[in-house]
Write a structure and sequence with these properties.
Layout: E1 2-5, E2 18-25, H1 29-37, H2 42-45, E3 49-55, E4 65-72, E5 75-87, E6 91-98, E7 103-112, E8 115-124, H3 137-161
Antiparallel strand pairs: 1-2, 2-8, 3-4, 4-5, 5-6, 6-7, 7-8
C-alpha cells in the first residue's frame, strides 16, 4: 500500500506531499527493527542510498547520527541524520541535520498475523525536488514513491529469506 499525503499551509499554500508506504514482513517486530536501525543495512535495501555509516560507536538511540549519501534521479547528495525518536521495537525517526534537504524518515512497526507491518514515511520540508528545484517536486515525488515501494518489497524479501544479522 502506498499513499501520498498532500498537506496544506494555513495560508492556503500547498506544501510537499509526504510519501508513505507499508509492507508486511514475515519476521518479528524486533527482528525488523534491529535490521532497520543498523546503518550498514540501509544501502542493502534502499536503492537510493549509496552509503550510510553510524557516526561514533555505541548502541543506536535518540541522538545517534548517521552520515550517508543518496542518489535520486542521477543526482548525488550527502546528508547527516539524527535519531529523534527511538522506541524499540515499534518505531524510529531520523531527522536530517546536515545536507541540501530537510527531511524526516519515520518507520512504524506493529505485530501483524505472523510478522510485522512496517509503515515507512518520508517528509521533506523543502520538497523532494529540493536538490533539483521546486518545479521538479511532482516528478521527484512520483519517482521516489515508486522507489520506496520497491525498497520495502526488497526489505520484505531480504528479511523473509535470510536471518537478520
Amino acid at each position: 500500500m502506498s499513499r501520498r499525503h498532500r498537506r496544506f499551509h494555513p495560508e492556503g499554500i500547498t506544501l510537499m506531499p509526504d510519501i508513505e508506504a507499508s509492507v508486511h514482513i514475515a519476521r518479528t517486530p524486533q527482528d525488523v527493527f534491529d535490521f532497520l536501525i543498523d546503518s550498514e543495512n540501509l544501502p542493502v535495501w534502499d536503492a537510493s542510498v549509496i552509503a550510510a555509516d553510524q557516526v561514533g560507536d555505541g548502541p543506536v538511540g535518540v541522538g545517534t547520527r548517521t552520515k550517508g549519501a543518496s542518489k535520486i534521479m542521477g543526482k548525488r547528495f550527502d546528508w547527516v541524520t539524527e535519531v529523534t525518536h527511538f522506541e524499540s521495537p515499534t518505531g524510529v525517526t531520523y531527522t536530517s541535520v546536515e545536507g541540501p534537504m530537510t527531511f524526516t524518515v519515520t518507520s512504524a512497526l506493529e505485530a501483524e498475523s505472523g510478522g510485522t507491518r512496517l509503515t515507512y514515511r518520508i517528509h521533506a520540508e523543502s520538497g523532494l525536488g529540493g536538490v533539483f528545484g521546486r518545479m521538479a517536486d511532482p516528478l521527484i515525488t512520483k519517482a521516489q514513491t515508486r522507489t520506496v515501494r520497491a525498497n520495502l518489497d526488497t526489505l520484505a524479501d531480504l528479511l523473509g529469506e535470510a536471518s537478520v544479522s
